[in-house]
Amino acid sequence: MTVERLLHALADGRTHSGEELALKFGVTRAAIWKQVAKLADLGLAVEAAPGAGYRLAHGLDLLDVEALRAALEPAVAARLAKLEVFTELDSTNRRLLAAPPSVGSLDVCIAEYQNAGRGRRGRRWQAPLGSGIALSVGWQFAGVPAEPSALTLAVGVAVRRVLDRVAGITIALKWPNDLVFDERKLGGILLEIQAEAHGGAHVVVGVGLNVALPAALLPSLCDWPRGAVDLTTALGRAPPPRAVLAAGLVNEIAALLADYPAQGFAAYRTEWRSADFLRGRVVRLDEGTGRLFGTALGIDADGALLVETDGGKRRVVAGDVSVRSVG
Length: 327
What we know:
Layout: H1 3-10, H2 18-25, H3 29-41, E1 46-49, E2 53-56, H4 65-71, H5 74-79, E3 80-86, H6 92-97, E4 106-111, E5 132-141, H7 151-167, E6 172-174, E7 178-181, E8 184-195, E9 201-210, H8 231-235, H9 242-263, H10 266-274, E10 282-287, E11 290-299, E12 305-309, E13 312-316, E14 320-323
Parallel strand pairs: 3-4
Antiparallel strand pairs: 1-2, 4-5, 5-9, 6-7, 7-8, 8-9, 10-11, 10-14, 11-12, 12-13
Helix pairs in contact: 2-3, 4-9, 7-9, 7-10
């Protein structure tokens, strides 16, 4: 018996007795108890009532490979080389970075729980199993695309389009990779590019999205003044099924990657500017050379952030930018 099998048995949120589960899986009740303990390690709240059994505090909308595949656009499904869904994985980005697909093919990796999920600058990104979307899309460009530094921004626009279309919610975008709702962090993007010896470029696009997290966890999930938010809270109702969200993201990102060599950032620039969370705000910029404050002026044609400082206008292509008071 595996923890995955127990997880699927308890995903309905109902109470299942230890005896029932032991008979179902042909193991002892002690074996069931050991697997229940492992579920807690995955961030799940498991309620154990003496004489009644076990239940998850909240039912789970688990992802299924075949349901995801069926929800993909035909053109995207035709490009699909690999689609994997893991109950637990260290990092979906790391998984896809290990082996690039052939040019024009698509790899997709999704994890219900990442035990070493990463954000920009090595920050840890972790949420309880089944509470969000943690997916990566791998793509091989024939050559290094123009404006590669703006590709993260273009992905932000793609995610924004999906959430508008699928969930009916309009989000803001914080340079360079954060998804924002009501001045709280809804998710983020981690894009990694590896130049290949033959002149191509292996790109892995990672998207982390908060869908239905425990309310007590949201304030501490990130260091923003107002903390994080999930789709459930933002919508004030149940969010769309996670398979629908995940498939929508894969469809939109796949189309972006296929078209980016020809279109570049120009096809996304206007929409990104309309969603710019930082424009007009006083920001703090942390660079390798130190820290400075200024007012965000938006982005230039190549996606670099423009900041007005006491020393004049700065063009920022890398660094950590946050909305902070000067004091």
